[in-house]
Design a protein that fits this description.
Blueprint (H helix, E strand, L loop, with lengths): L7 E15 L7 E16 L5 E15 L5 E13 L6 E13 L5 E12 L5 E14 L2
Antiparallel strand pairs: 1-2, 2-3, 3-4, 4-5, 5-6, 6-7
């Protein structure tokens, strides 16, 4: 029996710096969104020349309507997992959504992003976030 290989852990932070987006709940309004999404990716050799990959995303986001001053907050976590095959590098894409909760009477909204992870032959990982979108959630 072969000894177990140690897991590889990669920490990444995606910073959203003062991103101005159209408010999907209120036509004509724009939101100034900022914050961080901290991502921890853990890869462990699966004994079949590939890797088991576990993801943990921890988001701390806030937004303010430039027009009305309405404030929005999101503090939440998402988890995921997937496996690579023997052909590396392997790329995996998943859509993660974050509920931004209104701090007043305005509707909540959801910020979504496609997160792409690439795992190489050593178990190292790289992550990017792309294809950002917002949708109206209504009052929760």
């Amino acid at each position: 029996m072969l000894p177990a290989e140690a897991a590889t852990v990669v920490n990444a932070t995606i910073h959203i710096p003062a991103d101005v987006r159209t408010n999907p709940c209120s036509p004509g309004d724009v939101l100034n969104l900022d914050g961080d999404i901290h991502i921890v990716i853990t890869t462990t050799a699966n004994g079949r020349a590939g890797y088991q990959v576990k993801d943990h995303l921890d988001a701390h986001l806030s937004g303010v309507s430039i027009t009305t001053g309405a404030k929005y907050l999101s503090n939440e976590a998402n988890n995921g997992s997937w496996s690579t095959g023997a052909v590396l590098p392997a790329v995996h894409r998943d859509v993660y959504s974050f509920l931004l909760i209104s701090q007043g009477r305005t509707p909540n909204y959801v910020l979504s992003a496609t997160v792409s992870e690439t795992v190489d032959g050593t178990g190292g990982a790289d992550v990017t976030a792309e294809q950002w979108s917002m949708s109206c959630q209504g009052r929760g």
